[in-house]
Amino acid sequence: PVTATPGAPPGHRGHGIAAMRARAGRLGGVLTVESTPGEGTVVSAAIPLERK
Fold it and tell me: I need a surface site. Which of 14, 20, 25, 37 has the fewest CB within 10 A?
């Protein structure tokens, strides 16, 4: 799970995950976050590209 960043303002986690997910969504994409305790976190964004 994502935890608060030390020194982040109260009420802010400091990671911007929700904002990044919203930006990906506006572009027709998705943002996923996978976290395994003791192993780390993987943040992935998939954004469709237009072919010309």
Answer: 37
Q: Is the pTM of this model over 0.90?
A: no
Q: Where are the beta strands (DSSP E) in the chain?
A: 30-36, 40-46
With a CB cutoff of 8 Å and minimum separation 6, the contacts of 45 are 20, 24, 29, 30, 31
Whether residue 46 contacts residue 26, with contact meaning beta carbons closer than 8 Å, is answered with: no
pLDDT tens column, 16-40: 888 899 889 999 999 999 999 999 9
Q: How many CB atoms lie within 10 A of CB 45?
A: 13
